[in-house]
Amino acid sequence: MATSEPQCGTESEESTAEPTATVVANPEEYMKHPLQNKWALWYFKNDKSKSWTENLRLIAKFDTVEDFWALYNHIQQPSKLGFGCDYCLFKDGIKPMWEDDRNKLGGRWLMTLNKQQRHNDLDRYWMETLLCLIGESFGEASDDVCGAVVNVRPKGDKLAIWTGNCENKEAIMTIGQQYKERLSIPSKALIGYQSHDDTSSKSGSTTKNIFTV
């Protein structure tokens, strides 16, 4: 016996349904929040069969708050990286290497963490470092910031903020003091600023500090 097919998508003549109103979303809800600078995140994997430059890889660039968090939430935390690996966040156009024109006259605020801090502090410190950079947290001194690096190493991980001019003491000290406060580093624990020139030409295992906070 043949059966009648349901008439999909049609309304009976007796239907009294009101037409559905179309809701237009507020376009401001979908607007992204621009950052003052465009940033590039780099990843270094220590593959001894490749050169240093071959091991350095650009992951992504971003220039909005939303794109930063989308990237940050997608990648591994520093504490999960293998030994010898680095993350580098730099202003777009500046490569994370001493030889770059924007870096070669500069230096870095360097903080070395002990092994226990890898589990307790490293990831939080790195996130705060990133937020300091993209949020231009150092006022006018933020113009002197080039980027930041986290090095994951067996003897102790390192965090550094790179600046463009190692002779710009006022900006350097502003960055160092505010960075230390942002990470809640105890006042008695000193962090040092070193020039890239001294770091690249050092003969021993340590580099002298030009400034400390």
Automatic annotation (TrEMBL):
Residues 1-20, 194-213 are annotated as: Disordered. The keyword Protein biosynthesis applies. PROSITE patterns: IF4E. InterPro entries: TIF_eIF4e-like, TIF_eIF_4E, TIF_eIF_4E_CS. Residues 201-213 have a biased composition (Low complexity). The keyword RNA-binding applies. It comes from the Eukaryota. GO terms for molecular function: RNA 7-methylguanosine cap binding; translation initiation factor activity. Keywords: Initiation factor, Protein biosynthesis, RNA-binding. Gene3D superfamilies: RNA Cap, Translation Initiation Factor Eif4e (3.30.760.10). One of its GO terms (cellular component) is eukaryotic translation initiation factor 4F complex. Belongs to the eukaryotic initiation factor 4E family. This is Eukaryotic translation initiation factor 4E isoform X1. The lineage of its organism: Eukaryota, Metazoa, Chordata, Craniata, Vertebrata. The gene is EIF4E.
